[in-house]
Specification:
By secondary structure, this protein is of the alpha/beta class. Helices cover 37% and strands 24% of the residues. It contains six helices and seven strands. 37% of the residues are buried.
């Protein structure tokens, strides 16, 4: 477990409390404010490594929790994982063979940042669009979606895309995000199907 931003309070707290990264607190805050996960939901977590969101999700539902990432995810009790790219039809087929109904899709994935804001923002929006497309393929009607993004020139168009598929869409910032970060989360509820 590590933090590219150093050993700040959130990192140290996560390490002390047994979470794989500080990101665990972001999902806790999203859940507290938005209630996107119900206690019987099946959840698919995109870009799930190292697994801190999976750790939190396992405590929020009795349903299935499935993480997908390009990299292997260390084993967690009660969590299933798929190693692969969400753009690969075989990954979609494997997921569909594992679970009939998906109630919630979350994505906290981020590209490795280059330090060039416009380039980094374009890359995260591309990831966001891939996550949205994947979600639209697997979510049940009425399902929920949450995805990390960055504020910037491309963000409004992505936000409008999400609004075409969900009844309720809003953004939120989390207290656990690094100070000065343009990071925000899109919280979309009640998928039209």
């Amino acid at each position: 477990m590590g933090s590219q931003w150093g050993y700040d309070k959130a990192y140290m707290r996560a390490k002390l409390e047994g979470y794989r990264s500080r990101a665990a607190y972001k999902l806790m805050e999203i859940q507290k404010k938005s209630g996107i996960i119900r206690d019987d939901d099946n959840i698919v977590d995109l870009g799930a490594a190292p697994g801190s969101w999976l750790q939190v999700e396992r405590t929020l539902t009795r349903g299935r929790v499935i993480g997908i990432d390009l990299n292997p995810i260390a084993t967690l009790d009660g969590v299933e994982t798929i190693v692969g790219d969400i753009n690969d039809p075989e990954v979609l087929a494997e997921l569909q063979s594992m679970v009939d109904v998906v109630n919630v899709v979350v994505c906290d994935a981020s590209p490795k940042l280059s330090g060039h804001k416009s380039y980094d923002q374009a890359r995260i929006i591309e990831l966001n669009e891939q996550a949205l497309l994947f979600s639209c393929r697997i979510l049940k009607q009425g399902g929920n979606f949450a995805v990390k993004s960055f504020q910037g020139t491309d963000f409004p168009d992505f936000y409008q895309d999400v609004k075409q598929h969900f009844h309720s869409v809003r953004t939120m910032n989390t207290k656990s995000s690094r100070k000065g970060s343009t990071e925000l989360y899109v919280i979309a509820k009640n998928f039209y199907g």
